[in-house]
Every structure is written in structure tokens, then in C-alpha cells.
């Protein structure tokens, strides 16, 4: 059976990319101003802990557009090697068309920014975590019972590169498609899954306000370091 991620990618042509913007919810949140966040999963142990959310500080990174020395075929060969070195899977490399298509699956925090979650306990102590952390545990209270809510976030991304000749070398263009899948597990209930998708230069926003955007690092993987 085709997964949600596979269905979304099937609807997106390999060069002209379309986007489905759906909903992603990490927790009940309100907007606040925050200090610099810390990485990793968030574990909240007090039932009286308050959670608050702040959107990403930086705008969504734009699609890649850079002029680099060398021929288009050499530029694509270099980009392909760099993407493989970074752990991406190459789905297509066509020098005649000047196209490379690569995929990534794993930790969202490498390539997206979803803002920060701030947890404040009853004594006023706070802790911050990036909302794109791959795993987070929140304690919730219902009546006299306290139970743990597990939230897992997974990223599937696709990067499409196009190389065209220029008067000084090669124009390298790149667009990323980002598919985030969130699963929330509560004891005694079936896990709930939600998915959003967005492209380079765009954001995804869920109904309660969590915003996710590309941070630009995926597209920049294809650019060779200066002097190479």
C-alpha cells in the first residue's frame, strides 16, 4: 500500500514541484518571545507545566540559484558527490537533461525550522527546545491521572537540481520539497498521524499555529566549497 509520503511525492513532478499544505500540531500553544533554544527532545515531567510556542525567527530559505565555475556536467557531478557524502540518496542523475534528484529521510532538525517550545513549571523555571526535534514527551493530566504523550516527527525531503550553462560557468538551480510526518501516541489510544508539505521559500502551518520552514541547508549541500 502506498504511504502518505509516497502519495504526496507522486503528485509533485520532478522539476515543476507542487505543494500540499496540510496541518502539523506538536502541542497546545500560544505565541511568546523566547531566548535562544536548545536542541534535542523535550521531556516535561510536571502536570502543572505550561507550554508556549514561538514561530521561527528567520524567513523560509529561498530556492537555490547560484553561478559556479565549470561546465554543467562537472557541476552536477560535484553536486551528486556532495549529496551522497551528506547521506542523501540519488534517485536520478541525467547529464543530458542537466538534472539531479536526491532524497533524504530522517531527523527534521537538519533541514527545517519549526520555532521553539517553552516549558514553564510551577516554580517559574523554563526550558526551551526546537519544535522540529525528532522526539518529544509531554506529561498530560486528566482528572487525577497523569499520562505521557509521545510526539515523533519525521522528515522526508526531495531536492531537484537543474544545471544550465552561463557565460562564466554554470547556473545551478535547486528546489526542495519537504514532507513532515508527525505521530502522537497516547496510552490506550491508537497513534494519530498528520502530514504537511512545503517547498523552498515556503512554510507549512497547522491549525493551532505551528509553522515549519526550510532552513536552506538542504539546498546548500549541492554547492561546492569555495576554491574547489
From TrEMBL:
Native source organism of the sequence: Skermanella stibiiresistens SB22
Domain of life per record: Bacteria
Keywords tagged on the record: Signal
Signal peptide: 1-25
Protein name: Uncharacterized protein
Amino acid at each position: 500500500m502506498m504511504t502518505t509520503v509516497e502519495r504526496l511525492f507522486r503528485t509533485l513532478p520532478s522539476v515543476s514541484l507542487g505543494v500540499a499544505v496540510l496541518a502539523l500540531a506538536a502541542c497546545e500553544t500560544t505565541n511568546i518571545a523566547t531566548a535562544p533554544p536548545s536542541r534535542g527532545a523535550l521531556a516535561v515531567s510536571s502536570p502543572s507545566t505550561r507550554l508556549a510556542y514561538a514561530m521561527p525567527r528567520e524567513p523560509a530559505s529561498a530556492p537555490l540559484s547560484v553561478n559556479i565555475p565549470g561546465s554543467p556536467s562537472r557541476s552536477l557531478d560535484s553536486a551528486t558527490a556532495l549529496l551522497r557524502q551528506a547521506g542523501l540518496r540519488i534517485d536520478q542523475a541525467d547529464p543530458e537533461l542537466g538534472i539531479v534528484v536526491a532524497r533524504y529521510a530522517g531527523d527534521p532538525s537538519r533541514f527545517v525550522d519549526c520555532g521553539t517550545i517553552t516549558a514553564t513549571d510551577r516554580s517559574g523555571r523554563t526550558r526551551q527546545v526546537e519544535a522540529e526535534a525528532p522526539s518529544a514527551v509531554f506529561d498530560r493530566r486528566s482528572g487525577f491521572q497523569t499520562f505521557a504523550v509521545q510526539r515523533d516527527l519525521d522528515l522526508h525531503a526531495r531536492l531537484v537540481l537543474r544545471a544550465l550553462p552561463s557565460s562564466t560557468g554554470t547556473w545551478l538551480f535547486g528546489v526542495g520539497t519537504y514532507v513532515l510526518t508527525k505521530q502522537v501516541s497516547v496510552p490506550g489510544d491508537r497513534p494519530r498521524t498528520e502530514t504537511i508539505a512545503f517547498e523552498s521559500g515556503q512554510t507549512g502551518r497547522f491549525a493551532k499555529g505551528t509553522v515549519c520552514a526550510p532552513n536552506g541547508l538542504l539546498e546548500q549541500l549541492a554547492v561546492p566549497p569555495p576554491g574547489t
